[in-house]
## 1
Amino acid sequence: MNKPLRIGTRDSKLALWQANLVKDSLEDLGIEARLVPTKSIGDIILDKPLYELGVTGVFTKALDIALLNGDIDLAVHSMKDMPTQLPHGLTLAAVLERGNPHDVLVHKGLDFLNDSGIVATGSLRRQAQWLYRYPKHEITDLRGNVQTRLQKLQDNAWDGALFAAAGLERLSLELQQQTVLEWMIPAPAQGAIAIVISKKDPSLATALQQVNHRDTAICTRIEREFLRTLEGGCSAPIGASASIEGDTLHFRGVLLSPDGQQRLYLSKESPLSAQEGIGKGYAREILKQGGAEIMQLIKAQLGK
Ligand SMILES: NCc1[nH]cc(CCC(=O)O)c1CC(=O)O
């Protein structure tokens, strides 16, 4: 009966690092587990920006199917890559304590910041926030896993490239010239690792409660509720960042046009006891302030 649990994961170094963290956490609880690495569409198609692939869940679909087929027992995801709506039959069983939530500029010197510059990213959210702050700069597309992107930065005459701090830290790549961008609002759930399982496995759900981090689970739920209410997928120019200090919930949300010309920003505090539906409420405020028009524009541009 006690076969090791099969942990489905993408086969990138970062994904494997994260899946190993889950494996170690389970083994600390006396639960044996092994990794089952799988390739995702998002890892196979590397010559297009993510938002042009035209499907959601490019990083998660293969693992969803493996879960539904019973080929794996749990799937480990970077939570920010997960669509806000899980497929039928699957459930979010746990969220590990969040790592560094920030974005980072890896650069070759910062003189270009006050001048013209070329910055590489495949993320509309990073592009839009960068152009809002540095309207004279140019964005060039950059895809691939973290190591590939760092290599491309070395090989090209770009001034910098944008990354998630958590990804760099987890791969011990934080030695290069880099600046943490505290002003940039991270993707909803950036830095968090999620465990998804089949709804048919309630005893596994109970066991996984032991690795769930309460504050991270609350904050990422609110951030994703904000994203879902705006109807933005994981590739939309939307940032959201929640944190908990004592009994207070802090929230920052942003919606931009992809060119960074328009930006709607919200910064709020609320009692932690009143967090039910709060992500939805914040999103509706943004929609009323003109966000609905920006979302229309984005959807038209992305051809949805
Ligand atoms: N989109 C790819 C991706 N998915 C998760 C991470 C890093 C970990 C995280 O942000 O949670 C990254 C790399 C990046 O955005 O630079």
## 2
Amino acid sequence: MSAVLEIQGLQKTYRSRKGVRRALDGFDMVVEAGQVHGFLGPNGSGKTTTLRTLLGLIRPNGGRMAILGREVPAALPEVAGSVGAIVESPQFFANFTAQDTLRLLADAGGVEPARVFEVLELVGLRDRATDRVKTYSLGMKQRLAVASALLKNPKLLILDEPANGLDPGGIREMRTLMRNLAESGMTVVLSSHILAEIQLICDSVTIIAAGRRVAAGAVADVLAQHASSSVRVRLESAADLAASAGALRQLGAQVTVESDHLMVSGLDRPSAITRVLAGNGVFVSELSPVSVDLESVFLELTGTAPVEGEHRQVDQTVMAPAGPAQGGWGH
Ligand SMILES: Nc1ncnc2c1ncn2[C@@H]1O[C@H](COP(=O)(O)OP(=O)(O)OP(=O)(O)O)[C@@H](O)[C@H]1O
């Protein structure tokens, strides 16, 4: 198996007085070796819960997970040395330099002191290694955090929201760093709720919504699959819109009726539209593919697209009534 990370049917419910919060609802994910893989989903969709479960920090209620072909959490003691992770932003001593910070961590983790210089070089902090952390930009602090996770030279690096709060320059540096790590043979998984970050940094992506996988694959494929299928159809007479929508739906298309046109998706070939409408004596004055912007693809997939006049909650976790806890591992 070349998958470095495999998750199948992961379940996690949080219990509180208000009920049971189903944070993960049969979540699946596969990450192949040598990829920079984006784990994308809106706030509250279950990303941190997945990563914390994977690292043995919380217990799932069901499903299975494997890292480097070994079932976890059972094999975590054996694979832990091959996994570097930052799931909560690490706090560094502001008055320490990056070099002192990493030396301390290397010493505590039984890592060769020489590795400190290697990781400083890798994350591009060598020139600032003897400056105090309090003089660093946010991007530099994030890279120091990555450096700390790289000390033990992991095969799999897991980063929760590493680009959070970074400006475009910081994101560019992070992208170069991730690319270099992947080229050195490392597999990188990074979570984000911002599509633009993932798109710039990652090869492949898993999109999560309400605790379930809603899309996965190469970034370009996922976007192409969901972005290029809509066609705007204008008719010579707007009076024909409703009847034409009905005819197209019979072909299996999804049709939205707008004030002066139709939006049609779900058809392999737009020529079917003109054919069926002409057959009904209706003539098309415009037929144009609509290039959906990438942010809307993500919002549509994750069901958080803003609805006019409504302030929808981004946190989309399902609340189920309180009931007996599901059987989980180690119970
Ligand atoms: N300890 C907890 N107790 C109860 N509910 C929790 C707990 N941790 C997370 N949740 C809930 O589980 C759901 C998933 O949260 P999670 O933090 O995994 O989402 P996320 O995708 O990482 O979000 P974000 O992008 O905001 O970090 C949310 O509804 C959250 O409120």
